[in-house]
Amino acid sequence: MDHFLYRNGALHAEDVPVAEIAAAVGTPFYVYSTATLTRHYRLFDEALSPLDHLVCYAMKANSNQAVLRLMASLGAGVDVVSGGEYARAIAAGFPGKRIVFSGVGKTVAEMEAAIAGGIRQFNLESEPEMRRLSEVATRMGRTVPVTVRVNPDVDARTHEKIATGKAENKFGIPIAKAREVYAEIARLPGLEPVGIDVHIGSQLTDLAPYEQAFTKVAELTHALRADGHDIRRLDLGGGLGIPYERSNAAPPLPVEFGDLVKRTVGDLGCEIEIEPGRLIAGNAGILVSEVIYVKEGDGRNFLIIDAAMNDLIRPAMYGAYHDIVPVVEPEAGAEMHPIDVVGPVCESGDTFTKQRMLPELHPGALIAFRSAGAYGAVMASEYNTRPLVPEVLVHEHQFAVIRARPSFDEIINRDTIPEWLKG
Ligand code: LLP
Hints:
Blueprint (H helix, E strand, L loop, with lengths): L3 E4 L2 E4 L2 E2 H8 L3 E5 H15 L4 E6 L6 H10 L2 E4 L2 H10 L6 E3 L6 H10 L3 E4 L2 H13 L4 E8 L21 E2 L3 H10 L3 E8 L9 H19 L6 E4 L17 H12 L5 E4 L3 H4 L3 E12 L4 E5 L8 H5 L5 E3 L9 E7 L8 E9 L6 E4 L21 E5 L2 E6 L4 H5 L11
Parallel strand pairs: 4-20, 5-6, 5-13, 6-7, 7-8, 8-9, 9-10, 9-11, 11-12, 12-13, 15-17
Antiparallel strand pairs: 1-2, 2-3, 4-14, 14-15, 14-19, 16-19, 17-18, 20-21
The chain binds ligand LLP.
Ligand LLP binds next to α10 and α11.
């Protein structure tokens, strides 16, 4: 469920007509709903109750400071994967004890910053990384809580680019090697193993792979405890999928995921952490764009719009489907025609969709890509010197620009001319 609905024939973001935002900020732009973000966070929070738990919002999905501030105010923790994301978490007001640091390639500088600023745990992904963290923590005179991300070799049945839990993926330590690795951690100074981390991929639409992975984690918990480790925290991923294509079967709900967690690991007495990004932010955002031209091609027509692959890369990168809806609600029974929706970037890959059935649209019409709140703005670039599009947050009848569109001068002045080229 989201808060982008037609009212009196006009698409609204909560209580604000989308066309009103377009008139104020210009197109294209992203708009996010506070109510949807809040609701999705709470669904997870409630799904894991009454277990001791922390929902650590994976900010990679949408790391705008206003979105982060909202999550922090709701009591969420946060999952970060870079020094930049760590700095964002601190700037948004997350206390260190609610920040989890994930990622396969943490640098010394990133480790130092997080240890100095406060950290709930590092999720370690390899032996060289754990030795490096031990050195850094010891040098700083600290002992840091860690988990090891185990790779359970489970097929998450999702897009190959976002599956992370198979042996062939770069993530984690093979689960069969985990006891050996925890034994080494226990010997290393500066590290305190507190739990186990697992993450098998993103946009999961089936609970079975989770069940396999969490069952293996439960077995490992017993084994590690028998080895003398105080395993008291489990960080459980796989990100639940969202219904991009409304005609498809709906993915499992957070409450069903919560029931599975309780069934598989609920009796271990561990604190449960999860790291959802997409399900919290995805359907909480849309990308709004204006039709520039309608071009009649040879046997197919093109809707040329002012958003492009640099603004929303998911269709070009993953062949992802995003629902497209006109901002003015089509008349009931309006005729639909197949059309390719494309951006102005000079690549054939700048095609959002081919032969999508849409009502007749004219230049100047506004359209919205649904489910664009996660992995939309964060993956945008300024390719073709197209400014990063603004982001807007709606709260009931109010809206605010939470990241402004840069001017051409701002973009150009980020570059510098070396002395020898001047004059
Ligand atoms: N935690 C870890 C360790 C992850 O690798 C990911 C996603 C998440 C949490 C958040 O997963 P989510 O709840 O969002 O599924 N750019 C791609 C998605 C990449 C996801 C990578 N890892 C896309 O647009 O579909």
